Amino acid sequence: MKANFLALRESELNPVFHSLDQLVDQFLKINKFPVILISGEMGAGKTTFIREWFSRFGTESSINSPTFSLYNIYDSPNFRLYHFDLYRIKVLEELEDLGFEEIWGKEGISAIEWWQIAEPYLPKSNRIHLSIEAVSIEVRSYTLEWSEKELQ
User: Fold this and answer.
1) What is the pTM of this model?
2) CB-CB contact of 19 with 130 (8 Å)
3) Would 129 disulfide with which of 52, 110, 115, 145, CB 3.0-4.6 Å?
């Protein structure tokens, strides 16, 4: 597992965006659809990160939290983003009828907040882990982790 760690203000996210862009591109070039697993406490900035990252790709969509709808789909000229928020899912059985495993790692790019409940249904490959932690009111630490062997 390879990792990249940065502590930045939300207005200084370009180095993290650049690293994530490179990982996504590497997966897509080998016909793998990345699954971005986003970890962080409530209010850490998970949805804000996804909004700021994806808005750079020329989407016409207004990117917001899918907490109540469970997921939103956004299109850009580059790719389709499936943005999931599983915060409201409390037991694994709730996921069984939703069919999300038909999307994760099979098409577009999936970004999943509160993904831990879905661990048994998530693909074992194509994963990019993004951890966001509040260092202070203005600064967050961002850690990207991925498996090098998945990119070969």
Assistant:
1) 0.91
2) no
3) 145
Tens-digit pLDDT profile for residues 101-125:
999 999 999 999 999 999 999 998 8
Residue by residue, DSSP assigns 59-86 as --S-----TTTSEEEEE-SS-EEEEEE-
SS3 assignment, position 128: strand
Instruction: Note the pLDDT of residue 96.
Output: 83
Tokens of 119: 């661990």
CB 46 within 8 A of CB 38: yes
Question: Residue 56: what residue type?
Answer: R
Strand order of the β-sheet with 80-85 is 2-9, 139-146, 127-134, 35-39, 109-113, 80-85, 71-75
Query: Crossing angle, helix 14-29 and helix 46-55, to 10 degrees?
Result: 70
Closest CA to 98 of 126, 69, 74: 69
Length of the chain: 152
